[in-house]
Amino acid sequence: MRLDKFLVNQGFGSRKEVQKLIKAGIVYVNDVPVKDPSFHIDPNTDVVEIEGQEVEYKENYYFMLNKPKGYITATYDENYPTVMDLFSAEPIVNKLFPIGRLDIDTEGLLIITSDGVLAHRLSHPKWNVEKEYFVIVEGDVSDIDFSKYEKEGIYLKKDKYKTKPFRVKILKTSFEESELLITITEGKYHIIKKIMSALDHEVKYLKRVRIGPLTLDEDLDVGEYRELTEEEIELLKRYVRM
């Protein structure tokens, strides 16, 4: 890989910006200063340093975001802030994108990455990736037999569409409202709101807490993010057989 491309990929600026760094003589490869931007390196074995600081090589980046309400799940939007605005301090922000989507008024777990293969597999219906949501709905749901929907889904009359099977665990229920965990394997627009509306219970609050084997870190406040650990990345890749 060219040295200038390597530095661009690691977030040190545009091609022109990193070429200036290299020509300034502050970039070293294996303890030797290199001023040629086209110099080829092996990013897996060569040690690259800028002013004495080693540049860590990462082929891809993986983040867990606790998405807040009011943000669009997109890389750009003319009318609303996007989840990528929360990553504006990251030098590699232009390489990142969200996997799947959460509605503007939905909170919770969102994976942000540069790995297109993983994104495709986690999003594709073929892999039946489970997505679990904490849901608060209006009214008492104790009279609903949710078990039948685990086998056959539910028909949405307004959409003329039958959902895939889904699971519901009742955490708490009362006359005023109920708290549920709902697990789905599809990503159709407003699917949980439509399911609960078909059952005559409107959704008051929605938060995604799990994607496949990855659970939202309870230490992440709304709007905060962190990099995934190597173990978490490996769990996701094994889940979709990468």
Automatic annotation (TrEMBL):
<dbReference type="InterPro" id="IPR006145">
    <property type="entry name" value="PsdUridine_synth_RsuA/RluA"/>
</dbReference>
<keyword id="KW-0413">Isomerase</keyword>
<dbReference type="GO" id="GO:0000455">
    <property type="term" value="P:enzyme-directed rRNA pseudouridine synthesis"/>
</dbReference>
<feature type="domain" description="RNA-binding S4">
    <location>
        <begin position="1"/>
        <end position="63"/>
    </location>
</feature>
<protein>
    <recommendedName>
        <fullName>Pseudouridine synthase</fullName>
        <ecNumber>5.4.99.-</ecNumber>
    </recommendedName>
</protein>
<dbReference type="InterPro" id="IPR020103">
    <property type="entry name" value="PsdUridine_synth_cat_dom_sf"/>
</dbReference>
<dbReference type="InterPro" id="IPR050343">
    <property type="entry name" value="RsuA_PseudoU_synthase"/>
</dbReference>
<dbReference type="Pfam" id="PF00849">
    <property type="entry name" value="PseudoU_synth_2"/>
</dbReference>
<dbReference type="InterPro" id="IPR000748">
    <property type="entry name" value="PsdUridine_synth_RsuA/RluB/E/F"/>
</dbReference>
<comment type="similarity">
    <text>Belongs to the pseudouridine synthase RsuA family.</text>
</comment>
<dbReference type="InterPro" id="IPR020094">
    <property type="entry name" value="TruA/RsuA/RluB/E/F_N"/>
</dbReference>
<dbReference type="GO" id="GO:0003723">
    <property type="term" value="F:RNA binding"/>
</dbReference>
<dbReference type="GO" id="GO:0120159">
    <property type="term" value="F:rRNA pseudouridine synthase activity"/>
</dbReference>
<dbReference type="InterPro" id="IPR018496">
    <property type="entry name" value="PsdUridine_synth_RsuA/RluB_CS"/>
</dbReference>
<dbReference type="Pfam" id="PF01479">
    <property type="entry name" value="S4"/>
</dbReference>
<dbReference type="InterPro" id="IPR036986">
    <property type="entry name" value="S4_RNA-bd_sf"/>
</dbReference>
<dbReference type="InterPro" id="IPR002942">
    <property type="entry name" value="S4_RNA-bd"/>
</dbReference>
<keyword id="KW-0694">RNA-binding</keyword>
<dbReference type="InterPro" id="IPR042092">
    <property type="entry name" value="PsdUridine_s_RsuA/RluB/E/F_cat"/>
</dbReference>
